[in-house]
Every structure is written in C-alpha cells, then in structure tokens.
C-alpha cells in the first residue's frame, strides 16, 4: 500500500505504510490467577504498558514480571526479536521503546518488526511524535484502542537508510540539550521555594527593616485574636442563590480564590456568627497532606460576608496590634511550619491542628507600622521571585514547542541535508518487497521460546 502523502518530503524519500515496512504483532497475557504462568527470575521477558509509564530510555530489556514457559504457551504473547519497536496501542496509546533483546508483550501493544534494516530509532521517534494522529484513528468506549489493521495503514515518511541514521543522531543530540534545559528549568521551582523561605527568615529576624527582632515584644497568636472559630458543617452545593462558603481549595494557594464557590442556606444567627470580615485569617486545620495543614489566607473585601467550611478555622485579629498579612506570612516561615507540622502529623491518614495549638504559637511582634513595612518588603521580593518562576515556566513551554518543531522538520526532511549519492527510499522499498516475496511462508501457530 502507498498512502497519499500527508505533507511534502524530499524527492529521495517515499511515502509508504507501516504494513509495507514492518510486521505488526499483538501480545497476550496468560491467566493471572495461576502463579505458575509467571516467573520472578529467568523466564521470558514480558512487558505491559505500565512498564513504560515514565520510561524515558530508548531500549528496554524486561518488565516487572517475566512469563514462565507455561505462561508463554498459555497466552497469545509472541516472542519479538531484538530491535522490535514496542508500541502501546491502548491504555494509553503512544508509549514506545525498542526491544534490547527478545521480548514478549501483553495485549496492550502492537509491535513493529521492521524489514530491510530500517532504523528502529527513527520509527520510534515518528510513532511517539504521531501520538495525536494515532489517537484520532483509535476507537473504543471504555478506553481508546488502535487496532493492528489501523496501525498497518498508517502513512510513514521513509528516508534513505543512511539519512534515517543521520536524523536519529541529530535528534538524539538535540534531545540531550533539551533534557538538560528542562532539568535546569525544573530546578527553578525548588529554588523559588528556597528563596522565599530565605526572604521570610530575614523578614522575621528583623533583617529586612530597621528594627532588630530582639526589640520586638513576644506574644502568642491567641493573645492577638479576639475571636477564633471553627467553620460550618453544613453540606454545600452549587446553588448561587444561597450564601457562598469558602472551602480548602479556596484558601490553599495563600490567597482567597473565588473561582470555585459552593453554597448553603443559613439562618440569621449562623450568618452573624460565621460571616467573614475583611482582615480575617482563614487557616486550614485538617487535610490528608500535612503540608496544607496550617496554610492560611487573608480575607479581603471580595470575600467579606461569605461563610467558611468546617475544615477551616477563622482567626479574627486585633487589627490595632497585628497585621493579618504579617501573621499570614509569619505562618509560612520555616520555623512556624515545623511547629505546625509536628503538631498536626498523624498516622491515621488525616492530619489535624486545633485552635488551641494555633493560639499557642509564639510570635515576636514589631510595632504595626514596622509590620506593614515588612509585609511590603516581602511582597516586593516575592513579586520578583514569582516573575522569575513565570519566566522559567514560559521557557519550559518554549522548549516543548521547540522539540515539536524539530521533530516536524525531521519528518519533512528538513533537519539534515540529503545526499544525492544515497540509495533512494523507492529502491529500498522495492528491495523489501522482493525479499518478502521470496521469503518462505510462516507456518501456522506459534512456536514457544527455546
């Protein structure tokens, strides 16, 4: 089969189909309830799509389990040769690696055994890059699956053999540079957290402003608050005509987020008791992640009048003595976080901190004008750090787009120069057809591994 071209390629290339350049082979799984079908050591290497989850290497030798001789004979699995391109055709579509040795797969694969010495690395790059196109050919209700017959008909842009190797070498070199860039950019997220903690450490040691911490009087959080209260246990739904209720997702990022509000109905007494006021501090008191326990947000004017859920604690501060933003940043500092997390940790799977523990937290409190100046310095420093993080994220996105552009150029014949002295792909395809026609027909059935 010679499908129509999906895009223009050099004259020395040919558009062909996967069935013209490879045998497509499925896999199988023996009955899982019989342990004798599997072997912990030795046996026949066998992989499932789970073995390729997060797998970045080009070649693979084995998966988590091997098949025993019995399991191999009792399944539709087939031993594929070294160099076979192992492609997941369902759950999910698009994982791809090359067999480093003879290996079998489960039914989640449609694997390619290439003819004529074609480059498995080139085919792997093309299949991985073609994932969106291949998914568009798949069908299924529970999960998408690309059938063997559909995969056989997939158009394939075939360069001359030597050019395939040059393309793979160029892609590998560029991918190595991209991987280094991704690693360095990913480090920035960790550095951002460290930088922010360094800013907070200086802020609450008095190093960001004029006054030294030794002159700051000590207090407890409870002494600075005149009302500390747990939220409502009322079940909330999406009913905009009722009173909005802030929940953990609305405060988890350190700021009040009103993008996903739920609502409930309350009487006047409940509204008076639990309504939020500008300047209130909302603290997460219970969560499966200990990192979220004790995280807080300051209520601003847009959330005033709303209520709050039972997994939150409202701390209403004496605003003549304490800035809620100063307290909120102080609660993010490493020293306070350690105290909260040590108190909250639980082996039950749910971590909790109660109002008494929060009120007992000791804070060195400068005069209110000094608190406001510290908050200003923190927010100025954080804004610069956040800009750096945003730039790193944009750069990471650009690296991804660059990778896509490089692959697109590779499969259009624009990544490396063509050599007019090389055998064109059309001659290669004709030789493959001749060799396949002359090959003896395979016997029916499947021979077990020796």
UniProtKB/TrEMBL annotation:
CDD domains: RMtype1_S_EcoJA69PI-TRD1-CR1_like, RMtype1_S_EcoKI_StySPI-TRD2-CR2_like. Residues 418-450 are annotated as: Disordered. Residues 378-405 form a coiled coil. Pfam families: Methylase_S. Keywords: Coiled coil, DNA-binding, Endonuclease, Hydrolase, Nuclease, Restriction system. SUPFAM superfamilies: DNA methylase specificity domain. InterPro entries: Restrct_endonuc_typeI_TRD, Restrct_endonuc_typeI_TRD_sf, Type-I_RE_S_subunit. Its EC number is 3.1.21.-. The keyword Endoplasmic reticulum does not apply. Residues 441-450 have a biased composition (Basic residues). The keyword Nucleotide-binding does not apply. GO terms for molecular function: endonuclease activity; hydrolase activity. This is Restriction endonuclease subunit S. It comes from Rhizobium mayense.
